[in-house]
Amino acid sequence: MALTFLPQNPLEGSAMASIVLIFSLYLTIAFLVVIIAQILGLRRSPPPFLSLKAKSLRKKRFSGVNFASGGSGLLDITGKTSLSLMKFGTPEKTPLAAPSVNQKNVVSLTEQIQQFATVKRNLTAIKGGRRVTKKSLFFISIGSNDLFEYYHSNSSIPKEEFLTSLLLAYENHLKNLIDLGARKFGIISVAPIGCCPSQRIHNTTSGCLEDLNDLAVAFHARLDALMFKMSSECKDIKYALGNAFEMTINVIQNPLPFNFTQVEAACCGAGKLNGESFCSPYANLCLNRDNYLFWDLYHPTQAASKLAAVTLFNGGPQFVTPINFAQLAMA
Ligand SMILES: *[C@@H]1O[C@H](CO)[C@@H](O)[C@H](O)[C@H]1NC(C)=O
Ligand SMILES: *[C@@H]1O[C@H](CO)[C@@H](O)[C@H](O)[C@H]1NC(C)=O
Ligand SMILES: *[C@@H]1O[C@H](CO)[C@@H](O)[C@H](O)[C@H]1NC(C)=O
Ligand SMILES: *[C@@H]1O[C@H](CO)[C@@H](O)[C@H](O)[C@H]1NC(C)=O
């Protein structure tokens, strides 16, 4: 959920699954200023790959590319099956909901990495040498859509086995990025997705779906182990792993200090908890979105995303390990 506030405008309800790549070809200090400015919303975020022009790579101010794609997952199949239609609500209920119409347009993580390979080839041709990726930051936030689809498919694959295959896929993606020169990773695990309005409506008490949250917790533990293993195998890898579960559950359990008064219902949507359909021109819209954790049935508000970004950058070991994103940027 976190860094995805960077790529989109309007910022509300940005997609969760992404690679955001920041090149720090220039001074680290200048780079940090850019990031901090981005947190404050003062400067444009990296352009999406699909809108990138060949000549923008030559610009002096070129600072990164966003490959993120809503609905994508670690598994190539995630976001591309009819299951995701169910996940996003039936088409009858949400005739205007983009995700159910545009399933084919999901760009899998495999494809995102191929897109990065293209950019890297072009950049290397322009700038030459190894400098292109060694100091660049790779932000990756992915996994929730894989877990959603597994959970709602009532799959006969046991939970442990599914998680093993998911983490194997993650390892392969990271190895491909490392082969392409990536060394610094800012990684965000899966939030308590059982607490989304779209999931709470399946609980008679409107509580979170505990099984889905358990999957998110198990995913984080395995990702933590994977990153530790990979950084011991390859010494020049540096990473910061954001615990999106801890960060978010902390806010849900104690919302007021963070200025949130509504952490169950979505700001925009329809039905119970505004969690039965996507935000559309016909949906309900809350008046005080800054006091809501959820913008729509799945996605956080801009206020929640900013809080997450600040926590990732400056947070302590309860939320981000073994270093935070600010330390990663300087490492
Ligand atoms: C990369 O270079 C290829 C030609 O080698 C060109 O077709 C493509 O548009 C370029 N893409 C970007 C994003 O620079
Ligand atoms: C999974 O099980 C639930 C409850 O038993 C049911 O409502 C749902 O339709 C099932 N989903 C699939 C994809 O079979
Ligand atoms: C529903 O929410 C309650 C808390 O309100 C929780 O105790 C219960 O386990 C939840 N049910 C499911 C199926 O997750
Ligand atoms: C807190 O919420 C109020 C609306 O109730 C809003 O006006 C204010 O900007 C919020 N404060 C912060 C720090 O986000």
From TrEMBL:
Check the record and name the Pfam families matching this protein.
Lipase_GDSL
Q: State which residue ranges cross the membrane.
A: 15-42
Q: Name one GO molecular function term.
A: hydrolase activity, acting on ester bonds
Keyword Transmembrane belongs to the record: yes
Keyword set, alphabetical order: Hydrolase, Lipid degradation, Lipid metabolism, Membrane, Transmembrane, Transmembrane helix
Q: Does the keyword Ubl conjugation apply?
A: no
InterPro entries per record: GDSL, GDSL_Est/Lipase, SGNH_hydro_sf
Sorted alphabetically, the Gene Ontology BP terms of this entry are: lipid catabolic process
Q: Which PANTHER family match?
A: GDSL ESTERASE_LIPASE (PTHR45648:SF17), GDSL LIPASE/ACYLHYDROLASE FAMILY PROTEIN (AFU_ORTHOLOGUE AFUA_4G14700) (PTHR45648)
Q: Of which family is this protein a member?
A: Belongs to the 'GDSL' lipolytic enzyme family.
* Protein name per its UniProtKB record: SGNH hydrolase-type esterase domain-containing protein
